[in-house]
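Renewal narrative, Specific Aim 1. Our central claim is that a sequence can be written position by position from structural information alone. The example that follows is taken directly from our test logs and has not been curated for this report. It begins with the structure tokens describing the chain, in the order in which they were read.
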């Protein structure tokens, strides 16, 4: 049977949600991200992107660009619970149209529409979903349709923002695109393939040539360059972990500051856990990044699982302490970032 897969990706999601929920922000350039001086941009709306601001950029650079633009750019902290709520609403809208939906991230969904049998019917349904999301949530998204996940994902990103793209001929769609459009070709792989600019160039390589160049990943890329992909729709993705991390205003060895922060992070993690459908967790992990960017994690697992805050807090502190003395930090390196995460969640 012919597969028909749609990929729906919300446009500038965090920033757009802020724009519609906070009065007075409509139409303004908005940047969502770290509130301290040392984090990164999580999302920027299209107005802000006009000034060169983009996600994953250090917040200080974003602020500098905003200043240079001499425009009022709104900087906001990340409000995850709000975005999760809106994401759930969107998921509910999508689920009315297909019972096989994969949530790939907070603002990204794969929808199996194979049961509709034709692309034109799928197009109609997807345009209906776009319309309903616009009407009910006042948000725009971009949707790509193809005969597999790879094609639909590239199509939605090519159609952004507020776009729609239906691909019937995979090869002619892919040919002119930059090789970096293929998922799995990051900066490192692109460097190894720097003689190839377009996917058409890349598709001249044989399977064994790609395998020699990139190892096993080369085989997947060989098929991707030809628009071939059989990845299944994974219907429901459980939250695998709940975590928070935070960068200090200044690198620190001050135990009081570190304890305050770990307490705030633990509180936030436990709060999210309490609001989730899970009843216990079996692993706690903490992350420490030192001033030289060396990053260490330390985990502990519990056979029976943990469900109470006190036990959680005590174990977080136990994991943290060695990083504050010579056991795991003999040279007293200042700490730049700390994080707390719980994993192996059980219903
Ligand atoms: Mg998005």
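The sequence written for that structure reads:
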């Amino acid at each position: 049977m012919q597969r028909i897969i749609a990929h729906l990706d919300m446009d500038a999601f965090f920033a757009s949600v802020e724009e519609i929920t906070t009065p007075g922000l409509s139409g303004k350039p908005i940047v969502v991200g770290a509130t301290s001086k040392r984090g990164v941009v999580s999302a920027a709306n299209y107005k802000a992107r006009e000034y060169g601001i983009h996600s994953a950029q250090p917040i200080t650079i974003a602020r500098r660009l905003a200043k240079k633009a001499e425009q009022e750019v709104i900087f906001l902290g990340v409000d995850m619970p709000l975005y999760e709520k809106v994401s759930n609403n969107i998921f509910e809208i999508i689920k009315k149209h297909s019972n096989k939906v994969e949530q790939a991230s907070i603002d990204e969904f794969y929808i199996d529409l194979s049961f509709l049998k034709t692309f034109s019917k799928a197009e109609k349904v997807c345009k209906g979903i776009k319309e309903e999301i616009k009407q009910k949530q006042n948000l725009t998204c971009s949707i790509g349709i193809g005969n597999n996940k790879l094609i639909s994902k590239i199509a939605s990103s090519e159609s952004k923002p507020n776009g729609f793209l239906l691909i019937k001929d995979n090869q002619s769609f892919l040919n002119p695109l930059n090789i970096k459009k293929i998922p799995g070709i990051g900066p490192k792989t692109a460097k190894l393939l720097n003689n190839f600019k377009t996917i058409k160039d890349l598709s001249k390589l044989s399977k064994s040539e790609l395998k020699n160049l990139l190892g096993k990943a080369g085989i997947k890329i060989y098929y991707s360059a030809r628009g071939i992909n059989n990845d299944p729709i994974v219907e429901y993705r459980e939250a695998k972990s709940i975590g928070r991390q935070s960068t200090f205003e200044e690198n620190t060895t001050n135990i009081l500051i570190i304890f305050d922060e770990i307490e705030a992070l633990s509180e936030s993690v436990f709060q999210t856990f309490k609001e989730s459908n899970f009843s216990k967790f079996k692993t706690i992990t903490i992350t420490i990044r030192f001033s030289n960017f060396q990053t260490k994690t330390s985990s502990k697992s519990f056979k029976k699982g943990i469900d109470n805050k006190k036990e959680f807090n005590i174990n977080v502190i136990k994991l943290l302490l060695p990083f504050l003395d010579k056991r795991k930090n003999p040279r007293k390196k200042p700490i730049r970032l700390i994080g707390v995460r719980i994993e192996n969640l059980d219903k």
